[in-house]
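Q: I'm writing a short explainer about Transcriptional regulator of competence genes, TfoX/Sxy family for a general audience and would like to include a description of its predicted shape. Could you first generate the structure from this sequence?
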Amino acid sequence: MASKQGTVDYLVDQMAPAGAIAAKRMFGEYGLYCDGRFFALVCDDQLYLKPTAAGREWIGAVVEAPPYPGASNWLLVDGERWDDGAWLGRLAGLTAAALPPPAPKKPKAPKAPKAPKAPKV
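A: Of course. Here's the predicted structure. Afterward I'll give you a sentence or two in plain language.
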C-alpha cells in the first residue's frame, strides 16, 4: 500500500520547525530531507527515521521496524505523536543534525562536440 500524499504533506508541515523539509518520491513511497540530509522515510503511511542516538534519546520508548521488506530497522514514530509539531520538528532536527552532510555533487563533464558526418559517396 503506497503512502498518501496528504500524509506526507502533513508530516512535512509538522516538521517545519526543524528547517527546510522536503519530500521526494522514492519507489512508490517518500524520502524526507531536512536541509538536504536524508533522514526519514514515509512507507505505508508510517514514519520511519534513521536510527541515531539523539533520536532514540528524544523518543524515549523506541520501537524499531524495517520500513520495507529486507531493510534494516529504523525508528518507527507512533502516529499519535504526529500532531505535536514542536516535538516532531525537534525529533527531525536532532536526527538530521546527527547525520553527515550530503556529499557534494560532482560537476558534470562538458559534452564533447559531435564529429561531422562523413559525406556519402
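A: For your explainer, you could say: The chain has one domain: 5-97.
Q: Perfect, that's easy to follow.
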